Request: fold
Amino acid sequence: MGEENFLCSNIKYLRMKKGIKQNEFAKELNVSPQAVSKWETGKSLPDPLLFSKIAKIFNITIDELIGIDMSVSENSNDTKDENCDNNVINVQPLVVIDSQEIEIKTIGFCKTCGITVTNDNLGTITPVVKCASCLVKEEEEKIKKKNIIIYKIEKECKTQKTKILCSHIFSILPFILFLIISFGTTITLNKFMNSLIFGYAFYAFISCLIFDTYIREIMEWALDFTFKAPGVIFSLDLDGLIFLIAVKVIFAIIGFIIAMVIFLFGVTLSCVLSAVSYPIIIIKEYINLRNMRNDLKIKGEQ
Reply:
């Protein structure tokens, strides 16, 4: 095992011995969990500038971290001549941490892909045994799902802000119109107050229509109302046809008048109810927007 492979295995061994998870270890070093996984699988090496910080986390020296055994170095001079005489380079890398030798041991089988898991390709043992490769894929999948959730929350948050903004923009127009009407003639306190009340009622009415409230259901009922004319008995001659046409026209006019009355009733009722409900509804919408922002912040920090 080369010096690089020793460092990779050593980091994994020390992390597992300390009971530190990959994401926690990565957070302490200000790197990604994927970077730690690559270190432990030998795909890359940590920045040398991080060696002191890693050693401090594990409460060891940098020499112990990278595998420099001082006792072995002192005895190397005594054995050097013997090895040279036999033209043999006696290199037996030894992993010594707290006077314990690390050996490649079989831990189990990966619950995801089924390969044999050793301490050389171990990803995690809790809650089940998984290899490093499968653990990295799971982490990437979690990040992908997290990004999808964040995107959905951002979209909902944007839609909510647009609804609130539109409710203010489109509702202020009739309010200003009523005020202009009151100032267009002789200004009296009575006219001004009436314009103010009617302007607020329409402001609240249009805002409640933009939001998904019961006011919209009332207006849908008023607009969907249809007048069904009764059947007409007539004779199959000219006078009978004229009678039929006249009755149909009368019923059409009656139906139109009834529909207009129902529509105006729906608008009036909706304006009165909106004036009362608007403060509660707009507060609720702002609370929903705040909750969406909080959810977005929480998901971003996880």
Notes: The longest strand covers residues 106-109. Strands lie at 96-97, 100-101, 106-109, 116-118, 122-124, 130-131. The mean pLDDT is 77. The two ends are 37 Å apart (CA to CA).
